[in-house]
Write a structure and sequence with these properties.
The chain has about 950 residues and is of the alpha+beta class. It contains twelve helices and 50 strands.
């Protein structure tokens, strides 16, 4: 269906014209649950949208936002002219947020606060730091003066007219981290020992990354290094050249109308040198800043023996049988491994994805918390039990992130965060128990954050990392009988990841001297013993009999699992000697004036805020038109429209797409084809019109973690003659209208270093009919396809695909041939199957069966940009394939065709942010009559 290709062109054009920026394209909020009501409230410069139950938090957000705007205005010297839209969501068991200027200035705030030990843990208050970061993005990207501002007044909010939104994310994120940080008060990532550790180990690795790496940061270690390098770089610019020079750069670049190409010229105007020279100075500064500390740390280092190298923090727990590790290395399918003895081999127990916590009991079994991404847009943690080599789900959508067995092996304590509030719950693992219902045993006050915890060997107490309001992270003990907390530490260190030893002492990680190491606290005496002295840092201690202390060390290449069989005391001190408090001031000095709370309405933000002219001229037509796009604040209603008029032929073309979250899709296109006809010395054009309509309702029903879904759709494809020369032969108008249902299953997984799909299966079964609505065709169409991918050693996968279709004799035929794999992914109106090495429509018929086998492997990682020009290269992968299939009619013979070939895929990095997989392929059709040698080029995402 050519119109679907037109829809892809429309989408691509709108993305290129309006969405290629460092900004995030707005995403819909999660589906409403029964009784959910959205509300809105305004202050002078902001509108916040929230669900019932979050009114107090919404008022706090408005207070903080107005205060942050006031604080940041002197730095940026300008602010958005209209209110910034803020949406608060509690749909994710992760801490995050985003901001974008399109189609209006907006921020999305995740209410769930960060836990101990991570990059985001160094904060006075989660919402305060989050708003400081995200509103810095808004202020930064909104900067536009001179010609960009004039063009915005004409064409509205187009991505290409926001100069700073088109700069590398290293500059966007770096400035936001710099402004989220308060050096005076000691919060923000640039004040954290985590960030200092990461940059220190970059220096320790012997090669601080070059500028052309950082501007296209993607998969290299450390992940998200554009934040790290960007923050230290912006700090370097402010400290070396002064804030006035940085502000001059921001103001000057906000006047540039040509994106990407004037960064260096603006830098020379503001700093006197190019970005390349600035970066060289920054590299030298980082080496000078961290090298003396590195030399001292290396000289004094006391580390454990290596067990396993991975780029990520691993989920680890001790057990009677040995150390249990959920190995996640970015190359292979995550699996839980058992390591019985320090010198022994690793034994695979079970494969399971998205595990965030583990705990084992000899009788109870292995508990796991897994994060599940649901079709409704939520991402929640739930508890699972692995026992007798089988998994059992214990909770559903209950959001328990961490859990630990009580000594009886029947009950457990689990923690969760709802609406940003921390809770502890008592659960029974045996669902057949007379009273298996969970009961809440503690609920924290707002701004009290519960981090990781562990249960004492006697089961009477638990120890946890706790962040009290306006303080840092400390260790506290909770009496499970009296349900009272007792402070064990009161320091300015970031104490995290507590774990009980068999004798009742508590191991934990802390940065008393600015470097995270493993310490042991005797709770009753307050005596602290240091057990490690790492160059990078030491985290997540557990005690495994036989191994001793097991922890994860941060290195230049990732996290290293290490162990110390018999740790020795490297230093000892009283915890009272570390006493110190942050006593952060309140984030807001005075409440902001606010309007009344009202019901949410999408209309105030849904109106178009942009347009671009469309001009297309060739020998047959002159198209003049416009395109626009928009959405509401919740991201539920999104639309894109392109309308054009052919002034030569007086014909109108239209492409329109409307989507309601991820459930409803309406797509309509009207286009005209011009086919040149010739008779003797005469030639003229036949003009035909094609109207295509797609109405699709996804997720009518879901099951099995929403991997199984039912969908419905209606497809209309109408071809009509508009005009033709008098010598042309007869033309038959065609109208195909299909109504169908589709059942899909998809459990595929993607891994960091594996191209495309890393593992999993995708299946769809589709039934469509021509008989419910008016159609020139009649009868039914049935199709099925299965694609299975297996993870091979290293970064290689093997993928098999089978597909088949059946249509009644009165239905439209299927087509076989060509190299376009994109249309195979359509659920409804799918009438084309690729067969590389053959022409399109090499075979047509009411039946088809195809087979495919592909071996794909990662070849190289470049991850480099061409200086500061908006062109770079990411990963390179290769693919060997065999395609086979046939299309035929009832009663006719079936001729099987086979093609073989190879593809090379390069990830093109465009505009620093956009990754396009560009594939160059060669295919050879093996049939002596129909096969051909084909070289082709495509840009298609494979997953």
């Amino acid at each position: 269906m050519s119109g679907k290709r037109l829809q892809r062109t429309l989408l691509g054009g709108l993305v290129t014209a309006g969405l290629v920026s460092g900004a995030v394209n707005a995403q819909p909020v999660a589906w409403d649950t029964p009784g959910t009501q959205w509300y809105s409230q305004q202050s002078e410069h902001f509108t916040v949208h929230f669900v019932d139950g979050h009114r107090q938090s919404a008022a706090k957000v408005l207070d903080i936002a107005e205060q942050v705007r006031q604080d940041q205005l002197p730095y940026f010297q300008s602010a958005p002219g209209e209110r910034t839209e803020i949406v608060m969501v509690d749909d994710f068991d992760v801490s995050n947020g985003w901001a974008t200027p399109l189609p209006f200035a907006q921020m999305r705030l995740f209410m769930s606060p960060p836990e101990d030990g991570g990059d985001l843990a160094t904060s006075d208050d989660w919402l305060h730091m989050l708003i400081r970061h995200e509103f810095a993005h808004v202020m930064h990207m909104e900067m536009a003066e001179g010609t960009p501002e004039i063009l915005q007044n004409i064409f509205g909010r187009q991505g290409l007219l926001f100069p700073h939104a088109l700069t590398p994310s290293m500059l966007l994120e770096g400035l936001a981290v710099y402004l989220e940080t308060s050096e005076t008060l000691g919060y923000g990532r640039l004040q954290s020992s985590q960030y200092a550790m990461k940059m220190r180990m970059e220096v320790a690795g012997g090669e601080i990354k070059d500028l052309n790496q950082v501007v296209v940061a993607d998969r290299e270690w450390p992940l998200g290094y554009q934040y790290l390098y960007g923050a230290y770089f912006v700090q370097y610019l402010n400290q070396t050249y002064g804030e006035q020079k940085v502000q001059h750069f921001l103001q000057s670049y906000s006047r540039q109308i040509i994106p990407y190409f004037l960064l260096n010229r603006t830098a020379r105007t503001s700093f006197g040198v190019s970005f390349d020279t600035l970066w060289q100075g920054f590299q030298q500064q980082m080496a000078a800043q961290f090298s003396p500390q590195l030399a001292e740390l290396r000289q004094q280092a006391v580390t454990g023996r290596d067990l396993q190298q991975t780029p990520f923090l691993q989920v680890v727990t001790a057990s009677d049988n040995g150390l249990l590790v959920n190995r996640n290395n970015g190359d292979d399918r995550p699996e839980i491994f058992l390591h019985a003895a320090p010198e022994g081999d690793w034994q695979s127990l079970t494969a399971r994805s998205n595990i965030t916590a583990l705990d084992a009991h000899p009788q109870g079994g292995l508990l796991a918390s897994r994060r599940i991404d649901y079709a409704d847009g939520r991402s929640y943690n739930d508890l699972f039990l692995f026992r007798d080599e089988a998994w059992q789900q214990l909770t559903e959508r209950q959001r328990f992130r961490e859990m630990h067995w009580l000594p009886d092996g029947q009950q457990l304590i689990a923690s969760r965060k709802v609406a940003g509030i921390s809770e502890l719950w008592l659960l029974v693992a045996d669902t057949s128990s007379p009273d298996p219902k969970p009961s809440r045993i503690w609920r924290g006050e707002p701004e009290t954050v519960l981090g990781t915890f562990d249960i004492a060997p006697d089961g009477r107490t638990l120890v946890a990392a706790v962040k009290r309001p306006l303080q840092g992270w400390n260790l506290e003990r909770f009496d499970l009988t009296t349900q009272r907390w007792e402070a064990l530490t009161d320091t300015r260190a970031a104490e995290n990841s507590p774990h009980y030893l068999p004798d009742g002492r508590v191991m934990f990680s802390a940065d008393y001297d600015g470097v995270f190491n493993i310490y042991v606290l005797a709770p009753d005496s307050g005596q602290v013993t240091q057990w490690t002295r790492e160059v990078g840092g030491a985290f997540r201690p557990v005690w495994q009999p036989g191994h001793g202390l097991v922890y994860q060390a941060y290195t230049s290449d990732g996290y290293q699992l290490r162990y110390l069989t018999t740790p020795t005391a490297l230093s000892e001190f009283s915890i009272d000697a570390q006493q110190g408090r942050y006593d952060y001031p309140p984030a807001v000095t005075a409440p902001a004036a606010k309007g009344d709370v009202s019901d949410y309405s999408p209309w105030s933000t849904l109106r178009p805020r942009n347009w671009l002219p469309v001009v297309a001229i060739d020998d047959m037509k002159t198209l003049l038109g416009a395109q626009t796009f928009g959405s509401d604040a919740l991201g539920r209603h999104t639309y894109q429209v392109l309308a054009a008029w052919d002034v030569d032929n007086e014909l109108g073309d239209l492409n329109a797409i409307y989507q309601y979250d991820n459930r409803w899709l309406f797509s309509y296109s009207r286009s005209h084809d011009f086919d040149k006809l010739t008779q003797g010395m005469r030639s003229d054009y036949r003009i035909t019109r094609e109207d295509e309509l797609l109405v699709q309702r996804d997720h009518l029903w879901n099951a099995f973690e929403d991997q199984l879904s039912l969908h419905a759709g209606v497809v209309l494809d109408k071809e009509k003659l508009i005009s033709q020369p008098d010598f042309a032969g007869p033309y038959r108008d065609r109208n195909e209208t299909l109504t169908g249902l589709a059942l899909t299953f998809d459990n595929r997984e993607a891994y960091l270093n594996v191209p495309g799909v890393g593992w999993g299966h995708a299946i769809d079964l589709v039934a469509e009919t021509n008989d419910l609505l008016d159609s020139d065709f009649e009868g039914q169409k049935y199709q099925a396809q299965w694609q299975g991918t297996w993870d091979l050693p290293g970064r290689t996968t093997l993928t098999a695909r089978l597909a088949a279709g059946y249509a009644d004799d009165g239905a439209k035929r299927f087509r076989l041939g060509g190299h376009d794999l994109f249309e195979e992914a359509y659920l409804f109106g799918r009438d084309t199957q690729a067969l590389r090495g053959y022409d399109e429509s090499v075979q047509v018929g009411h039946r088809y069966a195809t087979q495919r086998l592909a071996l794909e492997t990662w070849l190289a990682r470049v991850e480099r940009n061409w200086s500061l020009y908006p062109v770079g290269l990411g990963d390179i992968s290769g693919n060997l394939f065999v395609d086979s299939g046939a299309a035929w009619d009832s009663g006719s013979s079936k001729k099987q065709l086979t093609g073989v070939g190879a593809e090379l895929t390069l990830e093109a990095k465009l505009g620093y942010q956009l990754t396009l997989p560009v594939t160059l392929g060669y295919a050879r059709g093996l049939d002596s009559d129909l096969g051909e040698d084909k070289v082709y080029f495509s840009i298609v995402s494979r997953f």
